[in-house]
Amino acid sequence: xxxxxxxxxxxxxxxxxxxxxxxxxxxxxxxxxxxxxxxxxxxxxxxxxxxxxxxxxxxxxxxxxxxxxxxxxxxxxxxxxxxxxxxxxxxxxxxxxxxxxxxxxxxxxxxxxxxxxxxxxxxxxxxxxxxxxxxxxxxxxxxxxxxxxxxxxxxxxxxxxxxxxxxxxxxxxxxxxxxxxxxxxxxxxxxxxxxxxxxxxxxxxxxxxxxxxxxxxxxxxxxxxxxxxxxxxxxxxxxxxxxxxxxxxxxxxxxxxxxxxxxxxxx
Length: 267
Known about the structure:
The structure is a single chain. This protein has 267 residues and is an alpha/beta fold. It has two domains: 7-18 and 140-266, Rossmann fold; 22-136, no CATH class. It is 43% helix and 12% strand. The protein is built from eleven helices and nine strands. It has helices spanning 22-31, 40-51, 72-80, 89-92, 104-115, 122-136, 143-155, 166-176, 195-202, 220-229, 255-266; strands at 7-10, 61-63, 84-85, 98-100, 157-161, 184-186, 213-217, 233-237, 250-252. The strands form two sheets. A six-stranded parallel β-sheet has the order 6-5-1-7-8-9, with helices on both faces. Helix 1 packs antiparallel against helix 2 (40-51), helix 2 (40-51) packs across helix 5 (104-115) and helix 7 (143-155) packs parallel to helix 11. The radius of gyration is 19 Å and the shape is globular. 39% of the residues are buried.
């Protein structure tokens, strides 16, 4: 692998940091000021059950449809009836009515969509309020991971590709202490749909030799499938050991595992 490796593409959320509790704040802001506010604790418990593999399988495509329910139990029953599919990557790109339950952000967004609470600009509003809460909580980046990324940049082309807005992502990187780590970054990357286009725009030869490319992320549809489809290799960051596993070349649990893996590329 080291003989051919040239490019490493990193996701931001859930990859360069891990916060397995933020979804609680997301759900709070999602329901805040709405008739569904009384469902907050129940919805948080439902999300936790999804992360534990008890309901609505992660790493699966699931139909997005607004559920009109007068009770929480009725809402959950409707969620269980939504169509679930395992789709090939090329087919999945055409299925804009399906959500890939690939990480905690995707799960939280799916719940908001099915409740009909992300309309009229609320998607960005809830996202920004959640980000601001994470910043207020004072999250810091892992020092060892930072060192590994800096060392990698001396030998390889290290790229950050994030769906986050540039301003938001840069502020968060600064808080993590990673603001001077990445020499190359793609923000608002619209992964997976525009990932290839954005990479080639910045690095015209990046897909011409797929064995030189490795993608590292926690959302298989966004981060892994596009690179695997191009012939590259993939590293899956998975903090949820009980959920269904997507295809990947390497699976890691968290930041310590990731630092160990990156150190192996450097040594």
